[in-house]
Amino acid sequence: MQKVYLDNAATTAIRQEVIDEMVQIMQQDYGNPSSTHSVGRSAKAVIETGRKTIAKCLNCKSQEILFTCSATEATNWILRSAVKDYGVKRIITSKVEHHATLYTVLALQEEFGIQVDYVGVLPNGTLDYAQLDLLLVAEVITLVSLMHVNNETGVVNDINRIGAMCHQNKALFHCDTVQSVGKTEIDLQEIPIDFIVASAHKFHGPKGVGFAFVRKSLVLQPMLFGGEQEKGWRAGTEAVHQIAGMAKALELSYENINEERDYIADLKSYCLQQLQAAFPEARENASTTFYNILNVLLPFSEDKTTMILFNLDMKGIAVSRGSACQSGSLKPSHVLAEMLSEDDLKKPSLRISFCHYNTKADIDYLVEVLKEI
Ligand code: PLP
């Protein structure tokens, strides 16, 4: 059966060069990076080289990059430390964030009684910047947590603008850049942002490794206690091969960024064109969207909504309805629920997300199968 993978916002295939790099590290640099002998020092050097590579891509200092096992961990750590150690009394976020942020904020609200304010989104998915401006005026120690690219709709938030607004109002700014790191340039010298988080498996690296950027002037308290790894902020023996794989994946993403971006953007517009040619009422669920994510509402009857992913899967096509963590759920997406009318929410929306391994033939096959459903 033909296999078509169009769920690259959920995770991506690992580049062969990344696999080769990781295998080599596992074979040769198996030392414990905390050991003082040469085998350990060699593993430590791998980690520090990876840190420098990542910092160079993002134009920040290598001490500002801290390795974690996922972006979820990095977000939990940053938000918790901000409340516990920085005295943050209020978090401003939005209801269209990933659950890694939303559920962490709710847990902190319950545990520490912090105030939580949600910035609204307009029906096209754009953030209500005017409302954010008003919310920021209050005299309370605040952290703003807003993502860069929405993982379900692809809506791109203007992080320069949000950063400037936070800076002006002395609020900390945490940004979930999981969907944008490795896919667009992020210059951390230019953007007034305090924390970002990223995950290697979203940019053709391995799963189980991510990082946090923490601006040099800020000091986090550890979430895990134990050894002195990661400045004593994140105890636990480092996953040397994963870190090396993540650095290699980011480096390769940057090396190919223009070529791959153009190629993928072309695939996305071809896909929308073909879908609209087949189903004239099909429409994208948002505007100002990123080049690799297409969230499209299909003019199908409601009874097709529940089975659509299953039917596509039976034909070898992997797409999703929302984030991977909730795609088994029949509840409407919490993101689309903020944007669409009740009627539109009942119809099937698909999140189709692309990478440079996809081809126009993949899209032709998807459209052909959808026509049969
Ligand atoms: N934030 C966004 C926007 C995501 O898309 C994801 C992954 O689905 C995460 C956070 C969580 O990342 P991780 O898989 O590293 O925990």
TrEMBL record:
It is an enzyme of class 2 (transferase). Keywords: Iron, Iron-sulfur, Metal-binding, Pyridoxal phosphate, Transferase. Residues 4-366 form the Aminotransferase class V domain. Its EC number is 2.8.1.7. The keyword Cell division does not apply. Pfam families: Aminotran_5 (PF00266). Its cofactor is pyridoxal 5'-phosphate. It catalyses: (sulfur carrier)-H + L-cysteine = (sulfur carrier)-SH + L-alanine. Belongs to the class-V pyridoxal-phosphate-dependent aminotransferase family. NifS/IscS subfamily. This is cysteine desulfurase.
